[in-house]
Write a structure and sequence with these properties.
single chain; 211 residues; mainly alpha; globular; Reductase assembly protein; chaperone; TorD/DmsD_chaperones; TorD-like_sf
C-alpha cells in the first residue's frame, strides 16, 4: 500500500478541524475568527470554495454573523425539530436518534481511545456529526504523527477508511437537507463544501479500503 503524502494528510486534518469546530464550538465572533484562520492552510480547491469566501464576508459584519448563528440553530439545533438532523442514526432505522449507528461509531471511538464524556452525551449521541468529524480529525492527527512507521500508519489509515466507508455516506443526505432547508446561501455552500470533503477523503483513502 502507498503512504499518503504528508501534505494530503495535513489538508484533511485542517479541513476536519475546521468542520468539527463549526459543530462543537459556539459561533461567537472570537471563536469564528479562530475557525477561519484554519482556512489559510487549506489546499486551493477548499480555500477558494464559495463557502469559505462567504464566511469571510460574514466575519466582518455583526448582523450577518447573528443571522448565521440563528440559521445554524434553526437548521441543526432547535428548539423545534431541526431542519437538517445532524445525527447519523436519523438517516437510517426509524429516523430516530440512538439507533444502531450510534453504538457502532462508539466502537470505533473506543478502538481509537476516545469516548464522549458524560456531560456531552447528555446533549448529543455518539453519532452526532461534530463527534464523527472529531474522530476523523483525531485519526488524521495520529496518521501524521506516525508517518514514519509504515505498519502503524497503514493500520490507522485502514481504520479511518473503514469508518469513512461505513459511517460518513450520510453526510451527503445531511448536506442535501442543509442546502434545501436553509434561507441563507452560506449554508447552501456548506452542503457543497461538506460533499467536497467527503469525496476527497474517499479518493485519498481508497488504497486502504477493504472493499
Amino acid at each position: 500500500m502507498e503512504i499518503l503524502a504528508q501534505n494530503t494528510i495535513k489538508n484533511s486534518l485542517f479541513v476536519e478541524d475546521f468542520l468539527r469546530r463549526i459543530f462543537l464550538q459556539e459561533l461567537k465572533k472570537q471563536e469564528f475568527s479562530e475557525i477561519l484562520t484554519l482556512c489559510e492552510e487549506f489546499e486551493p480547491k477548499f480555500k477558494e470554495h464559495a463557502f469559505i469566501k462567504e464566511l469571510c464576508k460574514i466575519s466582518t459584519d455583526d448582523v450577518l454573523l447573528d443571522n448565521l448563528r440563528y440559521e445554524f440553530n434553526r437548521l441543526f439545533v432547535g428548539p423545534r425539530r431541526p431542519k437538517a438532523l445532524p445525527y447519523e442514526s436519523t438517516y437510517f432505522d426509524y429516523k430516530n436518534m440512538f439507533g444502531t449507528q450510534t453504538f457502532e461509531v462508539r466502537e470505533f471511538y473506543k478502538r481509537a481511545g476516545l469516548r464522549v464524556d458524560d456531560e456531552q452525551f447528555d446533549k448529543f449521541p455518539d453519532d452526532y456529526i461534530g463527534f464523527e468529524l472529531q474522530y476523523l480529525y483525531f485519526m488524521s492527527y495520529n496518521m501524521l504523527s506516525c508517518a514514519d512507521d509504515k505498519a502503524k500508519f497503514e493500520e490507522l489509515a485502514e481504520q479511518k477508511a473503514e469508518f469513512v466507508s461505513l459511517h460518513t455516506m450520510w453526510f451527503r443526505d445531511f448536506a442535501k437537507a442543509s442546502s434545501e432547508a436553509t434561507k441563507l446561501v452560506v449554508w447552501k455552500y456548506f452542503g457543497e463544501f461538506l460533499n467536497l470533503y467527503l469525496e476527497n477523503e474517499i479518493v485519498n483513502l481508497a488504497p486502504f479500503s477493504k472493499k
